Amino acid sequence: MLYDFGVHFFHLTSNKVLNVLKHIFSKAVDWEMVEADVLKRVRKVKLLQENNRRLRYLSVEECAALVSACDDHLKPIVITALNSGMRRGEILSLTWDRVDLRHGFILLDRTKNGERREIPINKTLRAALQGLTRRLDISYVFYDPQTGKAYHDVKKSFHTALKRVGIRDFHFHDLRHTFASHLVMAGVDLTTVKELLGHKTLTMTLRYAHLAPAHKVKAINILDNALNQPTAQKVHNPNKKELAVVS
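User: That's the sequence. What structure does it adopt?
Assistant: Structure tokens below.
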């Protein structure tokens, strides 16, 4: 909560300062203190948006409840999202030639940032994919059995599942946030999370950094154990033959 307040305050403060600067330069042009082209450049600076900072994720219990509440066609789609971090469009357009169950990965050539991405398949995702009915005449992994075409959207059935378990203020894209959030909370480094999500830079991945305090504490404890472990040294004791342990 404190982190969210800090981010919100940062956006408000930065935007307020920017608006004041724009007003100052506007007056400076009116008073012929600066050239008009300077004001044009200042006006091009955009205000910071908070929309991209939204971070909503489910607890482990909520994930299990949501999967159980999904209709049969939706369940493997949600499981894929939770265990791969793939975007909705990437999941619904996924074809079997991009799925390598033998070696355990999904290969995405066409991603949002234009870069190739390999996604490991864990046991849960493997079981979900192996449980799907695969037809030779349909290349899509997830398809409507009545039309034989890929699902265009699953918004209605997804919202129905959310309603069944009482989960509010949650969108399909938040499954991707859930995937990343639990990786970070489990101690996975941000660089690895960045690669799994397919972020082009680390900036987008840093939104999850505040979820890793326990991992940081663990790292410090490991250092403490490494540097401050008592060491056994041979100390000559004229009265005893055993070794004395000193720290």
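The longest strand covers residues 105-108.
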